Inverse folding.
């Protein structure tokens, strides 16, 4: 489903519209056949039909399971978790067990609804960064032109530049989720923690 969703404009963090629709299409016949209160069934279907980000819940669980498996590799430098709580940003590394490495979190830059500005923005927080750890989200942003301006990435050239920069930090690229916008190259897979300390790669 994710392999199909990325070809339909999803990057699975900020945009899950296609994948949520695919999931609803899969679940709808089974929900409709339930011997249950019809009003409750209708409410479930109504909720799924208007919740564009519903698939994010499944994507996060999938990414967490995959990265927890990677955490069992005790002799590597792969980043297996990233998260932020509005105060600190933390990562865990496969070869270093449950130890967290933390730093002050940033405040995202992006577009705002009318009447709001960057001055009112809060520091980043939430568990959805596990999608970024897996290598979707920002690293797959080239597949989702519908959200790039929203997150401040702008035009095609800048999105492509971001992708090229990210490729310096990874150990592999998944062949399962290929985007036509990325010339059918998969998004990144496996962040290398050692690369984060190399200033020349951050430029």
């Amino acid at each position: 489903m994710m392999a199909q969703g990325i070809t339909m404009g999803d990057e699975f963090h900020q945009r899950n519209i296609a994948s949520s629709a695919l999931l609803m299409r899969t679940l709808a016949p089974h929900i409709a056949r339930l011997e249950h209160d019809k009003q409750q069934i209708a409410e479930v279907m109504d909720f799924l039909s208007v919740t564009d980000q519903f698939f994010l819940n499944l994507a996060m669980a999938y990414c967490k399971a995959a990265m927890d498996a990677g955490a069992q590799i005790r002799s590597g430098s792969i980043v297996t978790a990233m998260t932020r709580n509005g105060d600190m940003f933390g990562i865990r590394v496969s070869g270093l067990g449950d130890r967290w490495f933390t730093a002050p979190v940033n405040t995202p830059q992006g577009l705002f609804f009318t009447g709001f500005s960057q001055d009112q923005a809060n520091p980043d927080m939430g568990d959805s960064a596990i999608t970024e750890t897996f290598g979707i989200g920002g690293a797959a942003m080239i597949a989702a032109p519908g959200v790039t301006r929203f997150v401040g990435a702008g035009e095609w050239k800048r999105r492509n530049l971001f992708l090229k920069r990210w490729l310096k930090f990874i150990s592999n690229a998944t062949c399962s989720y290929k985007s036509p916008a990325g010339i059918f190259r998969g998004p990144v897979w496996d962040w290398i923690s050692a690369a984060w300390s190399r200033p020349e790669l951050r430029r």
